[in-house]
Predict the 3D structure of the following.
Amino acid sequence: MCLRPRECFEKPFSQSCPRPSNDARTLDLGDFYGVFLVFFGGIRSALDEQTTDTQQTADTQQTADTQQTADTQQTADTQQIADTQQIADTQQIADTQQIADTQQTADTQQIADTQQTADTQQTLCRQQIVDTQQTADTQQIADTQQIADTQQIADTQQTADTQQIADTQQTANTQQTADTQQTADTQQTANTQQIADTQQIADTQQTADTQQIADTQQTADTQQIVETQQTLSR
């Protein structure tokens, strides 16, 4: 067996790993590498095992503490809920009693108010009946007076309307007469104007004819003089 493995890789096989022999030799540091590795590996495993156990123990303790804290908290919460429920029940009972007392007081007050309202309503009804009767009498007197006044106003209005119709008819007749007279005057004026215009047109036409005849005569005389002059010139 080769006890120097490093030398086996550094030298040729025939030289580095000779055949085993039974000759004794001294030990060196390289012979203890394996022992050291096993020793330190065991120590490292023991330390890792101890660390794991310590961590597991700490985790177990923390879990137990957490569970105990949760149980304590749950117990405290349960106690607090029970106390709160008891306080709420006590408050509810007190509120119910107070509501019942308030309702009873309100019912008593409502009965008293209803009775007072009924009495007041009855008094108001009696007063309203008296007022209604008095108002009816007053209204009847006022209606009678209003009918008389209305009749008098109607008669006065009818008289005024008759007088207005007569005045309107007279005014219409007067206006018609004036319009007829104005129409006759306008027609006469128009006829006179038309006659004057016709006379003026006739005079103008006669003057134009006379002027045309005179111009024609003058032209003929001038032509004759020219011809005579030409004849004498020849």
Q: What stands out?
A: The chain has a mean pLDDT of 85. Residues 86 and 92 are 10 Å apart (CA to CA). The longest helix spans residues 33-233. DSSP finds three helices and no strands in the chain.
